Amino acid sequence: MNAPQMPELPPELEAAVQRAAMPDFDRWHQMIRSAGGCEQPVRLRGERITLDGETGELIESYSTADEPTGYLITACGNRRASRCAACAEVYRDDTYHLIISGLTGGKGVPEEVSDHPRVFLTLTAPSFGAVHAHRSKAGRTQPCRPRRDDPLCPHGRPEGCRARHRPDDPQAGQPICADCYDYPAAVLWNAHAPELWRRLTLTVPRLITAELGITHKALREQARVSYARVIEYQRRGLIHFHAVVRLDGPDGPDQPPPPWATAELLERTLRTAAAQVEVPAPHPDEASPPFTLRWGRQLDTQAIQVAAELDGIADKHVARYIAKYATKGAEDSGTVDRPIRYATQINSLKVSEHARRMIWTCFTLADQPAYHDLRLRHWAHMLGYGGHFSSKSRRYSVTLTQLRQARVDHAAEAARQAEGRPEPDPDRSTVTTGRWKYLGSGLMHGEHFWAEQARNRIQQARAIRNQHTERDEERKAS
User: Among the three residues 358, 392, 426, which one is the final residue of a domain in this structure?
Assistant: First the structure.
């Protein structure tokens, strides 16, 4: 009898088996686990030495020449989930801790900060033309944009839409008439949104001083406005701002705010400031008046409370909500997550037609001298927005750099204990120097399977740890 034939493995699994048979696999697997299962790991070649700061004695040395792989792997650190799910998960956790420490304390912020007035602010973009949308009422999907007598726009197309769009309908966010949509104004609004936010943060203290009848110097001596914010791309390609805004004492979260500082005052001044601030922008047609860019009419402010059963939104819900958007980008609105170098690429991009028109508009406006400083060609894949996805005021809470350094120190200490090396002398001055060369990034043939396995194990362990943490916190609260 003929021996039964073994079934052929899928190509990706066969490549993974071949990679596992290589002599350097164990060390590579250890490094990719340390990198969290990164999808775009960076390969480095070089060395690092640590010397005694006084005598020059060699204390420790490391060289990739001693590695079986011949290189060192480090995580890419990309915050976009579309580029690297592993590093995006770390970034989201860091953002959550950054936000929650500014709401409830921890990471060097006193717990008393939870007694400070705190407001969750959402700012939107204005309308630049009618778009398709999913609408619901009492759990039932409603017509998109019904219009009596079905009028036509100047281009001969219906001004309304009677379709009932699903939440995941690709038509949602697309203009009802692309020729009626004001693409230049939409792109310029995205480009000037960081300036709108900056002017808002300057206007809020001015409104507080005006309402209280005190000088700006007196306000600085009594209180400080702190914030942390992220942006969210809508389906129509425009951005929302989500922010935590807090009133502190003059030195920040370590000091209580004055008695007049209330969440109601903060909400009121935020709403007034959002209605007042504006940014002028030149019109592409020099014969036309300049644009006046403002926030949209939809604005939401909610006082943040420690417990969910109190009036207002709970602080942990806010931190999770904001952290969710830290790993998302313009690709969620139908565009791409990488820069577009040449206009010849635009027609072949796998994007929505609405995003394609916004990208074309960025390239078109970039050639005009009035918009040179906006770098619209560089930010075309972001539909004109060139600011940071997240930012915070200096005194809001811990920084991402501090969180990352704490994680590096923890990993270094765990490695020292595992290798049985003695504790470093805190009184001994040392100098560390290194030389590194970039070799490339990404996973090679047969490595994707093992990186995904490592990533899944880490994410499962993180989810279990978070569940235990939440249960412990609920038990303490009860």
Answer: 392
